[in-house]
Design a protein that fits this description.
7-stranded mixed sheet; globular
Length: 124
């Protein structure tokens, strides 16, 4: 079993910044990628970003490029999503996910464990 605990998020005004972090514990794979997804009310879960095990490569959904930055501290088993220039359409519950392999992308099937989610609300 792998446990993922998100922290951060909250409320911010349009154009502001927030950070969400995820700490992994338990039987994590020796090398695994991590990802973030989000789900807004009434919408399907969508891919946000992913990072390879060594943190050497990151992948972002097109709408997040240039605004979001994903990083990881492999020694601490944590990943952090820095979100800047937030807009109302970024309002959603953000979920971190643990991949079964060292590289993962936008497919939810690439991930085997999920966190409980962190609420991010953006409004003017």
């Amino acid at each position: 079993q792998v446990q993922l605990v998100e922290s951060g998020g909250g409320w911010v005004q349009t154009g502001g910044s927030l950070r969400v972090s995820c700490a992994a514990s338990g039987r994590t794979n020796s090398s695994y990628a991590m990802g973030w997804f989000r789900q807004a009310p009434g919408k399907e879960r969508e891919f946000v970003a992913a990072i390879t095990w060594r943190g050497g490569a990151t992948y972002y959904a097109d709408s997040m490029k240039g605004r979001f930055t994903l990083s990881r501290d492999s020694a601490k088993n944590t990943v952090t999503l820095q979100m800047n220039s937030l807009q109302s359409e970024d309002t959603a519950v953000y979920y971190c996910a643990h991949s079964s392999g060292p590289v993962a992308g936008p497919r939810p099937d690439d991930y085997d464990y999920w966190g409980q989610g962190a609420q991010v609300t953006v409004s003017s």
